[in-house]
Amino acid sequence: MKTKIKKIAIYMFAVLCLQGCGKPAEPITKSGFLLNTFVTLTVYDNDQQEVLEECMDLCREYEELLSKTVEGSDVYRINHREAGTREMEVSEETAEVIEKGLYYSRLSGGAFDITIEPVSSLWDFTAAEPKVPDQELISQNLKNVGYEKISVSGNNVLFQDDETRIDLGAIAKGYIADRLKEYLESQGVESAIINLGGNVLCVGGRPDGKDFQIGIQKPYGERSETVAAVAVNGMSVVSSGVYERHFVQDGINYHHILDPSTGYPYENGLTEVTILSEKSVDGDGLSTTCFSLGLEKGMELVDSLEGVWGIFITEDGELHYSEGMEDWLVDVE
Predict the structure, then answer these.
(1) Domains and their CATH numbers in the chain
(2) Which of 82, 285, 97, 72 is nearest to 176 (CA)?
(3) pLDDT tens digits along 3-22
């Protein structure tokens, strides 16, 4: 499938608030509802509005490839393929995102699994009156979950059966943020903030030479309530938590981070995981992966990786830091 995306040489729904950025001269900003979330782009050292327009166009183009609900997208075509289809060609970008999702599926031993769609589609967290799906229906669809049933070869996606379907929602925004950063840098931008529904990626630092300060939202708090802040330059800050999309039924909080082994939300004592990394796609994948693994195993994974740091928040409100994470913390200006 051809795509018009330019080749540039180049969920807790955690709201990470930009704070303490000073007052640069005439920053430009643009917001919109794309990728099923609120997108906000702010550039501090370039007054060309068309740069932001192009970024929004890129978001739309990627949405037309990676959304599972947009008819004709690569993911939609995969999930609605004809019976007997064992191979399907997709765009280079879609193949890259699927491969990255499979990488984190393997790394987590299936605790994170991009083939969760047969089960995740049963949970409608946006319904007027959301409710827990029928247990028998969950059990039936769990049989169709398993990242081992799908693979990528070049731009071709290979399937072992007819029932495997994918959901890239836990990794696509990070990938898109990285592409937007590459575009901005190709246009000479050296100071900007990309915020894709809480996936925050910085281009450089503040115009005055200081680091950007990113506040990390308090679980279940107002958007302005933070529990910590980090000072970063050119880095990504991504959170996943139980407050992003959730509902309460019979006194139990049901959130959107589902356990592929049960089909129900994880209950592991965590409320939020924040990942600091260079690439947003890694922060996106790892925030969900580490949440899924739980505090002990998730922390072990972060500590085993180069250039990645994490904050884990448990139900008692305590913050747990990976090795070296505290070096990034600052008091909000």
Answers:
(1) 1-333 (3.10.520.10)
(2) 97
(3) 433 333 223 233 333 433 44
> Per-residue pLDDT tens for 264-287?
999 999 999 999 999 999 999 999
Alpha-carbon distance 31 to 49, whole Å? 12
Q: Is 86 exposed, middle or buried (0-12, 13-18, 19+ CB in 10 A)?
A: exposed
Whole-structure pTM value? 0.89
Whole-angstrom distance, CA of residue 204 vs CA of residue 282: 18
**Comparing C-alpha atoms, which of 84, 109, 74 is closest to residue 1?**
74
Which residue, 257, 249, 34, 266, is CA-closest to 127? Answer: 249
The DSSP-derived string for 264-293 is: SB--SSEEEEEEEESSHHHHHHHHHHHHHH
Q: Is 184:55 a contact under the CB 8 Å cutoff?
A: yes
C-alpha 161 chain-centroid distance? 27
